[in-house]
Design brief:
The chain has helices at 2-6, 16-44, 63-112, 129-162, 167-181; strands at 49-54, 57-62. It has 185 residues and is mainly α. It is rod-shaped and about 115 Å long. It starts with a helix and ends with a helix.
Length: 185
């Protein structure tokens, strides 16, 4: 139980730009569809008449004019509720995408700096699992190659140190060694 709490993100807005666009697009669909429904109900009822009692008198109106206030109120309520629910669902759904993207980008930065020690992983319930698995495979492959290169270099260095070599070669050797030291094993 404690482990699952430890991996829980506290901030649901990880990539605000991406998540805001994601939420706005879903809300725009909901609002647009509710407006279309309202317009269609109004238009389909323009050709019909309704008899109603208003202020103790009988009134004949087109059905669309009679139901317009009710339809308008229903659309406002349903649009508001569905937009709120859409915001919540889209926020949590985008969080499952933006969070792993952020984590993978951070881990790629570490690999780019030569840190092959820390394994690449994201939470099991998040999206991009296959990407994380492939990135972990890549990290392991790079680590193996750098470790092999370091080992081969150390072996070659032993042989070179036995023989007398030029100063230029020594400088090249030192540069290669510095470059190899950038990688954390």
């Amino acid at each position: 139980m404690e482990g699952s709490y430890k991996n829980r993100r506290k901030n649901y807005f990880i990539d605000k730009g991406f998540q805001a666009k994601f939420i706005i697009k879903f809300c725009a669909v909901i609002i647009s569809m509710n407006l279309v429904i309202g317009v269609l109900v109004y238009m389909f009822n323009m050709q019909t008449a309704t008899v109603a009692f208003e202020n103790l008198s009988v009134v004949v109106k087109s059905t669309s004019d009679f139901i317009l206030p009710t339809v308008f109120l229903i659309l406002i309520v349903t649009t508001s509720v569905s937009a709120f629910m859409t915001i919540l669902v889209a926020l949590f759904a985008s969080h499952k995408i933006a969070g792993p993207m952020y984590s993978l980008q951070r881990q790629m930065g570490k690999i780019a700096k030569g840190n092959f020690v820390e394994p690449v992983h994201i939470r099991a319930e998040d999206q991009l699992q296959k990407t994380a698995e492939k990135m972990e495979f890549m990290r392991k492959q790079l680590k193996e190659k750098v470790d092999t290169l370091k080992s081969d270099w150390d072996e070659a260095k032993k042989h070179i140190e036995k023989d007398k070599i030029s100063e230029e070669f020594n400088k090249s050797m030192e540069k290669i060694e510095r470059d190899l030291e950038e990688f954390i094993s």
